[in-house]
Specification:
The chain is α/β, with parallel strands linked by helices. Helix content is about 35%, strand content about 15%. It has a domain at about 15-55 and about 110-160 and about 395-550: 3-Layer(bba) Sandwich (FAD/NAD(P)-binding domain). Mean pLDDT is about 95; it is low at about 1-15. Bound molecules: 3-acetylpyridine adenine dinucleotide.
Length: about 550
């Protein structure tokens, strides 16, 4: 089983001992956080990064077909206008290596690497009440003391590796998609099994099927997929966007999900069949997230409305997949459309028409029972395999934070505090853990938005907050328990108005055995725009809901 990458680059900088701030993670968020604290506030800061390069999610997820699902012109930093003008994306949805090249370029452009400690994993993050400082320790023996810790660890970085009986006995090769070997995997002439049919698998399966001799897909829950419609962007469109970036950036910051998309302000139930079919065809033709995030406004709230919209997608699956039995297996039946993350596909359903591809569905063919030395046993039948690809996802949002060994006041462990589910005021700070910020943490919009938009908003809010602390000679800022509880109640109240809690999604923590069933991100009624305004208001009122001490 291969779950670690083959890194060759050496760690680049020695550990500092006394710092102003430690940032954990050098992805989109950690890199911008470093730039902000170091260059805007002049602080002494280091980033600790487990990988041997920058990029976070784009460093680790190198599986075939990996590319972003947000349009590239807005899946990037917007804080630097020159960068926005100068960088040229090759496609609507660039591949992983291009996004990584972009982040490498940003790291060099802003001279970030000298302040990043690569190849070190944080094992302990402990608060000392007397000095009001945190000590962060790594698996390489570093001990760094700092007043502020900013966890920029990403929402989807702790992998979910199912505890299959016999996994260690498998004689072939097994890979988790988010720990993919840097020199790739050769599927030529191989019998491959892919476990999982989430957004990752939907990208990987068509690619793997082109190389493998035979591909078996093990599906536990089918997904509703919508075409990505990737391709080159018309240079005239790119030119117009570049000329209009100020407006675009303003739009996405004020939008619901961080995209230039808004719901159709009407109930689908008030439309004629012809009218809605034309809208569905338009969104289907546009590709991308429009079908999910710019559909009729009652889609997420009303089961009947949702059924009308889902019916269109079911018809598309039946029209594409030639074998009606396979088509039925690929059609979701147990949850409302849109309540699990929308995968974008390129030839996903078409792949099941290929003679070398077989679908094994847990509910009709039987679930995976164990891994044998020669394959996978499911529903009493053994499927012989040379390579197993685990596209089984992540312990989302709370997993990466729990992994940091965080102990706050009175030695309280964050992992224990969150045993019944996370609570975090605005998704930014946790009561009992002073001066510890979580970028795109649980109970913030994070994964329900175009991530760079939410990342920039959090980084800028945290920078202003720390600036305020320093200018006013304040020692600590900490979420107040009551404000935190009210925020958690608000997060729950809003999501309970929607169909989202009905799905066994990773948004609900339902993919991890034993994880409490709680909605992890924040689905604000006014989206990321409304959430941004709320955070600004809190700051303007002297950090309402936070305790600040001298
Ligand atoms: O993970 P997933 P993912 N036995 O959890 C199945 C982002 N992303 O890596 O649905 C058998 O969605 C599981 O089944 P079920 C995006 O936000 C972004 O695909 O839980 N099967 C499911 O089919 C996305 O949502 C991009 O019943 C098991 C699959 O494995 C998030 O990452 C691209 C199992 C896991 O699907 C996670 O996506 C790709 C078990 N024990 C991903 N455990 C971009 O474009 C799990 N499964 C930026």
């Amino acid at each position: 089983m291969t779950t670690s990458t083959q890194d060759t680059r050496p760690s680049s900088a020695p550990a500092a001992v006394e710092l102003d701030a430690v940032i954990i993670g050098a992805g989109f968020s950690g890199m911008y956080m470093l730039k902000s604290l170091r260059d805007k506030l002049g602080m002494k800061v280091k980033v600790i990064e487990a990988g041997n390069g920058v990029g976070g999610t784009w460093y680790w997820n190198r599986y075939p077909g990996a590319r972003c699902d947000s349009d590239s012109y807005i899946y990037c930093y917007t804080f630097d206008k020159n960068l926005l003008q100068e960088w040229e994306w090759s496609e609507r949805y660039p591949e992983q290596d291009e996004i990584l090249r972009y982040l490498e370029h940003c790291a060099d452009r802003f001279d970030l690497k000298p302040d990043i400690l690569f190849g070190k994993r944080v094992t302990e993050t402990v608060y000392d009440e007397k000095s009001h400082r945190w000590t962060v320790r790594t698996d390489k023996g570093d001990a760094i003391s700092a007043r502020y810790v900013i966890a920029a660890v990403g929402s989807l970085s702790t992998l979910n590796l199912p505890d299959y009986k016999g996994l260690d006995s498998f004689k072939g090769r097994a890979y988790h998609t988010s720990r993919w070997p840097h020199d790739g995997v050769d599927f030529t002439n191989k019998r491959v099994g892919v476990i999982g049919t989430g957004a990752t698998a939907v990208q990987a399966i068509p690619e793997i099927s082109q190389q493998a001799r035979h591909l078996t897909v093990f599906q536990r829950t089918p997904n509703f997929c919508v075409p990505a419609r990737n391709g080159k962007v018309d240079p005239e469109v790119t030119k117009a966007r570049k000329a209009n970036y100020d407006t675009i950036v303003d739009n996405i910051r004020k939008s619901f999900f961080g995209f230039e998309l808004s719901f159709i302000p009407k109930s689908v139930l008030e439309t004629t069949a012809e009218e809605r079919e034309a809208e569905f065809d338009r969104m289907w033709g546009d590709g991308g997230f429009a079908f999910w995030l710019a559909n009729y406004q009652d889609m997420f709230f009303n089961q009947e409305a949702n059924d009308v919209i889902a019916d269109y997608l079911k018809r598309k699956i039946r029209a594409t997949v030639k074998d009606p039995e396979v088509a039925e297996k690929l059609i979701p039946k147990t949850y409302a459309y849109g309540t699990k993350r929308q995968p974008l596909d390129t030839n996903y359903y078409e792949t099941f028409n290929k003679p070398n591809v077989v679908l094994v569905d847990a509910s009709t063919d039987g679930p995976i029972e164990e891994i044998t030395p020669t394959g996978i046993l499911a529903g009493g039948k053994e499927y012989e395999l040379d390579i197993i690809v685990l596209a089984t996802g992540f312990d989302a949002m709370t997993g990466p934070l729990k992994d940091l060994g965080i102990r706050g006041r009175d030695g309280r462990s964050l992992a224990q505090e969150w045993e019944d589910g996370p609570q975090a005021y605005l998704g930014l700070m946790v009561a009992g853990f002073p001066n510890l910020f979580t970028i795109t943490g649980p109970q913030s919009p994070s994964v329900l938005s175009n991530m760079p938009v939410s990342i920039e908003q959090h980084v800028e809010w945290v920078t202003e907050c720390i600036d305020h602390m320093r200018r006013n000679k304040l020692a600590t800022i900490e979420a107040m328990p009551q404000a935190q509880a009210q925020w958690a109640a608000h997060v729950a109240e809003i999501v309970n108005m929607t169909l989202m809690p009905g799905a066994n999604s990773w948004y609900m923590g339902a993919n991890i055995p034993g994880k409490p069933r709680r909605f992890l991100p924040y689905l604000g009624l006014e989206g990321v725009g409304g959430y941004r305004r709320k955070c600004e208001e809190v700051a303007a009122k002297g950090y309402e809901g936070f305790a600040l001490s001298p």
